Amino acid sequence: MNISKNLSLINTAIIETAQMHSKDPATIKLVAVSKRHQVTAITEAIDSGQTRFGENYIQEAAEKVSHFQDNIKFHFIGHIQSNKAKQAAELFDMIETVDRFKLAKALNKHLEKIDRKIDILIQVNIGNDPNKSGVLPEKAEELLQLIIPFKRLRPLGLMTIPPFETDNEKTRVHFRNLRLLGKRLADQQLFYNNDIFELSMGMSHDFKVAIEEGATIIRVGTAIFGARPDTIHKGAKTC
Ligand SMILES: *Cc1c(COP(=O)(O)O)cnc(C)c1O
Hints:
Blueprint: H1 3-20, E1 29-33, H2 39-47, E2 52-55, H3 58-65, E3 73-76, H4 85-91, E4 94-98, H5 101-113, E5 118-123, H6 140-147, E6 153-159, H7 168-187, E7 198-200, H8 207-212, E8 217-220, H9 222-225
Parallel strand pairs: 1-2, 1-8, 2-3, 3-4, 4-5, 5-6, 6-7
Helix pairs in contact: 4-5
Bound molecules: pyridoxal-5'-phosphate.
């Protein structure tokens, strides 16, 4: 895998797609999803200028994060059980997958103890997919209302993993719906900064469509690091 070359191709695609649709490429953040890849892969990406990474297992992330300085940002993009909230509160710069009150409450409690604040996104199950986590779109407002009093959490916007579609145009509708929901919530002043709220959407195969529909954070794994090994253990086959 040529991580450096892949990153350069994706960064070029981000700039081109943004410019084609009159968006400022600087407003789009690339999260390199390094889950199940080795620390050496992250180091290689950092050497090519990448500073944000995404992980989806707390245990695996804890080991990895310890290798890097504070200028390298880690986003959590997996499902968090409430009993792992303490660890998550300590480890991550952003938690993209807050989808219920109990989790927000547990995070806030631990953040108070360690005197820390973090950025969060609300994960929305935009396609009403019974197999996916995330708050249902019609419940997002209520969840944000409940989270606002938690002063250790900065709700910056929304995140989604849309239902899998073979047709990118069907995915586009989900991305658009997330943006419209975000706009409605921002109009009600429910985010930390309602002038510029974040929309985390788009992965390796559909990040261009996501940018066209207003993504400010894209989460790209395979197109940077190649196919994921089944496990993180040393000696695991990586391609
Ligand atoms: C794994 C993962 C990604 C990256 O997917 P790729 O198809 O490898 O780019 C993005 N978002 C989430 C939530 C993930 O779990």
